[in-house]
Write a structure and sequence with these properties.
CATH architecture of the largest domain in chain B: 3-Layer(aba) Sandwich
Number of domains of chain B: 2
Number of domains of chain A: 2
Number of strands of chain A: 7
CATH architecture of the largest domain in chain A: 2-Layer Sandwich
CATH topology of the largest domain in chain A: VC0802-like
Shape of chain B: globular
CATH class of the largest domain in chain B: Alpha Beta
Distance between the termini of chain A: 16 Å
CATH superfamily of the largest domain in chain B: ANL, N-terminal domain
Strand order of the largest sheet of chain B: 4-3-5-6-7-8-9-13-12-11-10
CATH superfamily of the largest domain in chain A: VC0802-like
Structural class of chain B: alpha/beta
Number of helices of chain B: 10
Oligomer: heterodimer
Shape of chain A: globular
Number of helices of chain A: 5
Order of helices and strands of chain A: EHEEHEHEEHEH
CATH class of the largest domain in chain A: Alpha Beta
Distance between the termini of chain B: 56 Å
Structural class of chain A: alpha+beta
Largest interface: A-B, 21 and 19 residues
Helix content of chain B: 25-40%
Strand content of chain B: 15-25%
Low-confidence stretches of chain A: none
Mean pLDDT of chain A: 90
Amino acid sequence: MYIEQISVFLENKSGRLAEVTGILAESNVNIRALALADTSEFGVLRLIVDDNQRAISALKAQGFAAGKTNVVAVEVDDRPGGLHAILSLLHQNRINVEYMYAFVRQTGQRAIMIFRLSQPEKAVEILKENQIAVIDGAEIHAM
Amino acid sequence: MDPSMHNEMRQLQLERLQSTINRAYRNVQFYQNQPTRFHPDPPVVESLDALNELPLTDRKQLARNYPYGMFAVPLRDVVRIHTAPGSGAHPTVSGYTRHDLKMWREIVSTALTAAEVTAHDILQIALDPGLANWARDYKDGAEAIGAGVIPNTVLSLSKQVQILKDYRTSVLITTPATAMQLAGYVAQIGYQPSIFSLKNIILVGEQVENEQRRLVEENLQAQTWLHYGLTEVPGPAIGFECEYHNGLHVNEDHFFPEIVRSHQGENDSQDAGYDELVLTTLTTRAFPLVRFRTGEQACFADELCQCGRPLRKIFRLSQRADNLVSISGVKVHRELIEFHIVNALNFLPRYRYCISHGNDGGGYLELWIEVDETFFSDEIKVLESQINAIDDRLREDLGIPVAIRLKEKISFK
């Protein structure tokens, strides 16, 4: 029920991000979604790609520190309050959102939110109980 | 210089040396276990030259005898205990008897008197928290002379300058780094040096370039005097400049200096070695040190000084002989940095450190840490909490500012 996200450590200086996208392009890896968190000194790039293994080994070979994390991808109704419904559900169940980002599917009326959650197992259970569509890995990587 | 004075000094030193060695080898297990040809009896040192038969003592050995292992008197005779950053897990602890404190007042006041400090002076002490022990010793020594002392407090640059001006400070004791900051600040805000009453600045804790020294003297319109001391043990003003400002007189009534050819590497034959200052305490009772390796590269002046003091002079050479860096006078050991990294992270990543200077000229320890697979997290807060853990520990232990930067592998090439 989880999606595997890869994340990469970057120093906050020009050209580092382009270096990563270059390596992925050369390895023929397609980026589905990405989010960059930054501080004054460094950043962490989080990516959903079509081939995690290829992406990770290419990045590591070039000296990047990269890791894999399980995140939860949820379909959100494209209407006012669509995201709020999910967040308030998580809040009521005392699940903390460490970070989140969005991407839009080319077809369809729905956006996809990627969540990094404090208790992913419990979260998935609750989301499903409430008829919220949790997308599985195979589906998203193949998009 | 009267040669009889010189001979008198050597006689005094020999007597004091013999009693120090007796005290150390009888009362301190570490020295008792040292392999000398007199073992198990205390060594008999019949001349000052014979001292070089005895083994050297280094900082690691002090650390292994934490906390009271190097004390030569029962704790009930100790009236003050000082802590200084050590070379690893433990700080270096030194103790003082009532008599020791009296001796330290004498050592410090001898050095201050050479810098023309008198009872008419207002003396301000501005040292980083990492040099708090020295600040206390300077306060005691200056009070013994009768100077009006403004004790050490951690203040901003502008507050230090305000006190310097308003309290009509005539003597300032500080590090070269802080003196440079003050000189820069005063020039920047456009104060004329004439608004200060400053006459003498005593520079302690680290080496100073001639150029920096001239700049400080010009901007603050005062004479500068260099002092040399040990931060771990036992204190400041072991060496001091006289009115000729050419080399550091060693307070030889209280310390016996040697310059010893030392080797850093494991394999001595491949290593040219360096000349290291080695000190033996002559009057300390609670914490006698026999042939302590200071890590300082130095050489003796060839001749005695024109000032007539029967105290030999040393010149400090620029490079340190060991892997210590000095930040605002605080000595930072590689082992100590490693210790705190490992403690915070539970492993030792690749790292590198150096001294950096901020916009205000203040020195700080800059530590680079490589983010590798073990260290990495996809969460910023996890990375930051690891930085903070190391940062807190180093700051607390060293009392100096620290900046930790997470770096990619490529930055280490």
